[in-house]
User: What shape does this take?
Amino acid sequence: MDHKLVLTIQDISCVGQCSLTVALPIISACGLETAILPSAVLSNHTGGFKSWTFRDLTDDMPLIEQKWIEEGIQFDAIYTGYLGSARQIDIVKHIFGTCSKPGCVHVVDPAMADNGKLYYGFDMDFVKEMAKLCASADYILPNITEASLITGTEYRETYDEAYVLDQAQKLAALGPKSVILTGISYEPSTTGVVIYENGEMSYYQHHRLPKGSHGTGDIYASSFVGALMTGKSSYEAAKIAADYTVKCIENTQDDPDHWYGAKFESVLPELISSLK
Ligand code: PXL
Assistant: This one.
């Protein structure tokens, strides 16, 4: 495998096992050089803690980009996660244009909502901008809440294959090469991921654990990027990432004190073996 340089753009939540503190170790563990562009620094994530600090780094982002342009630094892949504002989305689109090697893979996880609700601080203007970023990506990885917001269709807690196909087709019509829909569950005991590519939909189903964990979307997207950039197909990468995410949740579910994230670190060797 030749050496690959991956850039990931998202916040640093200092505590809470999400965004950059997940993406950097996971993608690095996959054997890929990982560069970061922090969009903000928070004391901890916004999903369940009482409060947090938020240092917005939006103004630094174009300055950092400019240095990379001057140095001729370009990336084999750019993966974006949680972004703090519509202006950051514009900056990211610009970076796609200036810092991509020819053939650079653009992966967008529109991390902004779950369980039928937008995360704290986001509104429909942000959703509109995120839809535009998805349009300029190669791979997008929304959950069903994010998909319904982006496509402007009704969010459903229970659904059938026709509903999921409709979401996937509408998302693909925006422009990405592949749509990976996460957390797709047709019956209570299982869940899975849908891969929609070249007009065809496939499904990888796996066991559903009774308790989810915060940050698993970031674990999923990071391990997907890791597997994809080590040469796996979209379907294989989607499957490897799903199996790894399940292991991370299994590794955490018996520890009630660990409510804020999933213990992904001690099962990293299993992710690495699945790439062989
Ligand atoms: O895991 C997504 C995420 C990332 N970053 C921050 C968050 C969240 C989800 O709540 O609050 C700051």
Q: What stands out?
A: The first helix runs from residue 20 to 29. Residues 11, 13, 18-19, 42, 45-47, 82, 111, 119, 215, 217-218 surround PXL (CB under 6 Å). The first strand starts at residue 5 and ends at 15.
